[in-house]
Write a structure and sequence with these properties.
Structural class: alpha+beta
Distance between the termini: 49 Å
Largest sheet: 5 strands, mixed
Strand order of the largest sheet: 2-4-5-7-6
Number of strands: 7
Order of helices and strands: HHHHHEHEEHEEHHEE
Strand content: 5-15%
Number of helices: 9
Length: 366
């Protein structure tokens, strides 16, 4: 059967072409067989011309043979058409549908044919691929949100415990007038600090959740114009810190399409971190290659600790820095979220000669 299919080249034909071809081929074969049957009937009549009882059965037998030939031909043609054009792709689609319904999106749908069933399998594969991509994104978002909620809850325990302790203290001793005015004011001020901390954490949590819902709006911009905008922001950031910076560009295109707001927000976070941890100078390198726009910020500071290399991109991770009014430990996490939404990534490492090195990438359209 495989040799016949290969000889007939049915897989290269559309469903209609193959159906018409098989009908014509079947009709031709049926005509040949019917002609042979008529010759057989004529030979019987000539051979048994003197036997009327046998002659009487020739015509009914011929009609029955012709009808049987047509019926068998139709069944065979339908069977060949089904096996050659429908059976394999339907089995592939059925198995894929069963696995997809069982949340197994890793199955690959492949059917080598140029007909409508081949196109259907290709469309089905694209749909499966998009479902897998969306499912992974949803799973990653759920995991990140779960992790974020756990870290958020952990960081809230301290201010809540402090507030609870001071509340119990005031509830017990304030009615007895055993609290001096100085102690009362000091307690209220401490409680106020922790309340502001809770408000800050809540606002930070809301901003992170909103980031995940921001759509990407890419627009074309010249590399020179984009790097000029970024350098202008860098001058403001490093000027406030009393640090210096230098920048360089390597690009295989004159213009790219990116979401400028995403890029600016990531860049400002990276340069703010670089200015915070640098001793005096930061190197910034922009590059475009292999469909991505890269921003690398390298400082001359102490670099990342072993713990920071593992946790720097976690939300609310601040290492040894605990200035709650300035640094919430969200900068690199926000950069990571935005880069991944832009189909890029964020990578942190230490430079061989000292200092930290952070690289953000964004998928671009040239």
């Amino acid at each position: 059967m495989a040799k016949i299919i290969g000889l007939l080249q049915l897989k290269r034909m559309t469903l209609l072409q193959s159906f018409v071809f098989l009908c014509c081929l079947t009709l031709l074969i049926v005509l040949v067989v019917i002609i042979l049957e008529f010759e057989w009937a004529e030979n019987i009549q000539l051979r048994f011309a003197g036997h009327s009882s046998i002659i009487d059965w020739v015509l009914p037998s011929l009609v029955a043979a012709v009808l049987l030939t047509v019926a068998v031909a139709i069944v065979l043609m339908a069977s060949i058409f089904y096996k050659c054009k429908l059976k394999q792709p339907l089995e592939i689609l059925m198995k894929a549908s069963e696995k997809i319904s069982a949340n197994d999106l890793g199955v690959q749908i492949s059917y080598d044919s140029k007909d409508e069933m081949g196109e259907l399998c290709q469309v089905f594969e694209k749909m499966r691929g998009q479902l897998e991509k969306n499912y992974k994104a949803l799973w990653r978002s759920a995991e990140e949100r779960k992790k974020l909620n756990a870290i958020f809850a952990h960081d809230l325990r301290t201010p809540l415990s402090v507030l609870k302790g001071y509340s119990e203290f005031l509830t017990i001793y304030l009615p007895q007038n055993n609290v001096s005015e100085e102690k009362l004011l000091d307690t209220i001020q401490t409680m106020r600090v922790h309340i502001v901390r809770l408000e800050s954490y809540t606002e930070a949590m809301n901003s992170i959740q909103k980031l995940e819902d921001i759509p990407i709006q890419s627009r074309t911009i010249e590399i020179e114009r984009l790097t000029s905008l970024l350098n202008d922001s860098a001058r403001q950031i490093f000027g406030q810190r009393g640090k210096t910076f230098s920048s360089s560009v390597t690009a295989d295109a004159k213009q790219i399409a990116v979401d400028i707001h995403f890029v600016l927000q990531v860049f400002e976070n990276l340069t703010a971190n670089g200015a915070r941890y640098a001793s005096s100078h930061v190197n910034i390198h922009y590059s475009v290659s292999q469909g991505f726009f890269f921003i690398t910020v390298a400082d001359d500071g102490a670099g990342f600790s072993d713990e920071a290399l593992q946790k720097a991109m976690l939300p609310f991770y601040r290492g040894e820095v605990w200035d709650e009014n300035e640094h919430h430990g969200l900068g690199l996490y926000i950069c990571k979220v935005l880069c991944e939404k832009h189909e890029g990534s964020l990578y942190v490492e230490n430079r061989p000669n000292g200092g930290g090195n952070v690289t953000a990438s964004f998928a671009v359209d040239k």
